[in-house]
Amino acid sequence: MKFSLLSIIMLLPVLASSQTSMGRPFSVYLNPQKGEAALGGISIMLRTTQNPYPFNGIPVDLNLHRVQEICFNQAQKDYENYRAGRLSEQAYRAIPMSNRDTAMIADTTYRHTIHVLVGFNTAGKKVVIFDKNQNRDFSDEVLLEFDTTHNSFNLRMDENHRFELPEIELNYEHFDGQQIQKRTAWLRFDPYRIIRLRRVKDEIERLLELRIIQDEYLDGIFSFKGLEYKVRVFHKAPSASTYLGPTVRTHISPKYRPMNLTQGLLRGDTLLLDGHPVILAGLSMYGDSLRLIELPEQIKLWGKEPGFFARDMVFIDVTGASRRLSDCLKNDQYLVIDFWGTWSPPSIKRMPEVQDLYDKISRLKKVDMISVAYDEDINKVRSYIERYNRSWPQAFDDSNLFNNASSPVRQLQVKDFPAIFLIGPDGKILATNFMEISKWVDEKLE
Fold this sequence. Notes:
The chain is an alpha+beta fold. The chain folds into 3 domains: 9-34 and 218-294, no CATH class; 42-72 and 112-214, no CATH class; 314-445, Glutaredoxin, CATH 3.40.30.10. Helices cover 20% and strands 32% of the residues. The chain has 11 helices and 24 strands.
């Protein structure tokens, strides 16, 4: 019987947590869908093949070529090489455990690797051939040619000035822990090197680089507390790294609302579904379901989104004085925190609106406001404060101090500037949208 040590390792952080040990796990079943490469497609690295067998059908007019490979189960490939004696036991044991997970490995060989020939012919065109039938013969496959000179780029732009990359469907076999199944991978590839994957070692490697983009995602629908939600997951081909690694990006939204695909959830993230806390535990081992854990309502959740609680933090003003968030919220006070930077044009553009917001807040007894400049030059910050006559508390968060654990920017995980937060007296984040906070202040004034 196969046994996955990594499937237990994946659950250890969840089982070790006193919060999640009381949670109710449930699963959302997922189905593969074609598309979305432009929004969330994950790049697949091609490797130069180490296949010991010769390849037939290589065009004779190629000045330069290399056979590379797409492997849909590296753990299986490494195991087959080890079993065939092409990989020593010492070398095999040195492979990370995530690529030796026995639950992902079959005792028999199957078709999990597709070879790709990339080269240049005598006419200077880039040649790409996928060995789709996996017979190590390129003569019975379609030969694709591409003019990769910069002058040809504009000819391939669509009406939205985006590059339409060629697509390819590849059939491969996948072991699901019990049996070998046939799968289809929807991919796009970039022969033009529009987005470079990495710094290459030499000119030949640069010319023969081929970026492969996974043009597929997983989606599903589930009901929770009487409401329906939709799920979209961008992932790599099923492997141990699928459920253990950070490459799985998940998006969850109410079923009938547009889905925001700009940011994704990672394994271990907590989200609120209509105010109810849920932890994203990750994909199942074979990528066919998403695991979620419902948490008890009384648990206090720390985060950066409305509904979560803000961790305590220290505001250091431009004079050097400091005070904590917890002190600002005493006596049932609300606090608006405005994040900005002298280096951020949108922050400077919003300054008049922030001034108007403060003018309203100054008329309220139970609401305070503090601005936090995330910058490296405190003198420049002071100059801007004086220039724009910012008379309310002004804090400075030094962007040079990477290990400042109590930094407001780090505690609230601010990545885009300007940003704004409305914190309630109990420390809960009530809003993070400027218009919403401005409306809330207007209602308080009525």
